[in-house]
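fold-stage: in
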Amino acid sequence: MGTKKNSSSKLHKNNKHRNGYDLQELCKLNSKLQEFVFVNKYGTETVDFANPEAVKELNRALLVKDYGIEYWDFPDDNLCPPIPGRVDYIHYLADLLVSSGVSKDASIIDIGVGANCIYPLLGNSVYGWKFLGTDIDKKSLDRANIILKKNKLTEEISLVQQKDASQIFNGILDENSKFSATLCNPPFFGSQQEAMQANARKQEGLGNTSNAQSRNFSGKQQELWYKGGEKAFIHTYAYESAQFKTNCFWYSTLVSKKQNAESLLPSLKKMGATEVKTIPMHQGNKVTRIVAWTFLTSKEQEEWTNKN
């Protein structure tokens, strides 16, 4: 009987999930996972990735086994993220910080931390980073805070509510703020209808044609859609970052659509970005990318690294 392999050779070289999962080992750590494990037509053990409960229980087992996170729970209507893909962003961001000389005692802002708090949990576990997580939804922050308390991480990871849904950094950063980097997994869709149509296509791809209206990924409005979609969000994100040019060494965001990433580049240059990097990430057959930028001059970068 085989072990589920997660088309993972394309993941970052430091990603623990490159060689797939030992599901039986994971079931020993999380017995609830066992009910979702089955043998597919190829004789390989796997789970039903169209089932949000299966994905959640798999994630719980991975967090215990590989990241020392013993408690991880949140409402089913919140986004349930795939751990291998999320930790890939962390690894690529770590490479960027190392290459810039600011990896020591790094402090990171997670824009839209969500109820699952996944990026701070992974970043702190793997690299010891300290985090500030922001979100517009207080209920999500309350749930994330429970996760932090249960795992004794409140000293390493702090949370703050963005009370103005039209703002991203305003109200969060001030003239004294200093962070090594930001990260963000922005809303991809422009409306609920667009999100549901994309999900129906995904469900069909997973072979779940009987209930195309169900969501294997879950997610609340602020997690999935934003007026104007991903492009509008990342341009707002970039515009606001330009108001705090020396408060953060690297600003970064995931961008799912290549054309959206390309549209961001000239805007960043106009706003005074001194360096912009586009970092491709390959997850199975899906290609996404990180766009990262800094406004610091060479002298400012040198001063920053000397202080750290």
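fold-stage: in (second)
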Amino acid sequence: VPGLLQTADYTRAVVERGLPNASASEVQRRVELRMRRAQLLLREDAPQLWAVIDESVLLRVLGDRAVMRDQLDHLAKMAARPNVTLQIVPLNVSNASAPAIPVTYLRFGGLDLPDVVYLEHIRSANFLEDRDET
């Protein structure tokens, strides 16, 4: 689930699984940062988000069933927003290629800025700005 569409409890489960030796304060810091970034989608001048999620991600329980229920409810609510498009790739689609890490393509419409690809890792991130890479 893209970070911008995660609930706090789901984010906590992701961080705890990905960084099992992280202190409680580090986990909380990461959760708070992600929740602050997610607020961008709720602003009046919110950016457009188009997310494509493999169905298997929605079936994999992180945290517990209550965390997943809240996460799925949150996804449905966010998908109803005019600035969010959420697509689910069904399990039976055999020719889909899912990357091993989240890939975010940033396009700055109307601005004289190059497109950027953001590759999110649990411990770091990469930004690709070269036109051939993006």
